[in-house]
Write a structure and sequence with these properties.
6-stranded mixed β-sheet, about 260 residues, alpha/beta, Rossmann fold
Amino acid sequence: MTSHKPLLALHNVHVEVEGKEVVAGVSLDINAGETHAIMGPNGSGKSSLSNALMGHPSYKITQGEVFLEGRSILEMSADERSRAGLFLAFQYPLAIPGVSVANFLRTALLAHRGKDADMSDFRKYFKGEMAALDISDQFATRYVNDGFSGGEKKRLEILQLSMLKPKMAILDETDSGLDIDALKTVSQGINRFHNENNGILLVTHYQRLLDYVKPDFVHVMMAGQFVKSGGPELALKLEDLGYDWVAEENGGKVAAK
């Protein structure tokens, strides 16, 4: 089901980090029910765009507009964007020693539901979502990402996704550092979350994630711009040929770093 207005709309977005422009004018519409993938070489601006959309203070949107369900999010803080329905799974999730996974997720869910919300269902909900992602009960008492393996960190990101149920999920290189078993589990969690009422933006280097989470559209990012878009077959071509051919198609104006 496609709504009359995009779930997430980017209009000519520019992003700066420490005074340097790293995203140089990108536009994109994502409708409910759609999965979009952004691929590109290192340094192309993919993660910078993800962080800027979520409201990271180091990534400043200097020009353009971003709308979530028709509402501008640029004046919202990161937590306001989260409550409005935007979610970012980080490429490098931070450890929070002293805060258990259960308490962390209970606090996050309460922030989304509102301070007067009934949380009596939390324990059952939490255990059910962990079981669906094949996560051990012992995970609940561990400190957030403290001593976690790469696969455990990414499973926790997907556990957050499945519990908070955002409208729009941005997944920044969720596949990085995962072995094939962890990749399958994480992909199953993403697919379980996705439905006709929400959207997914996958940021990835590699085709392998897209074997499990099928994109409707693939966008190639280079030098801070989208230089080519297509269907899932574009990701397969990139896997075979790399990025140089895309740079050449664009007259060499973008460098495949």
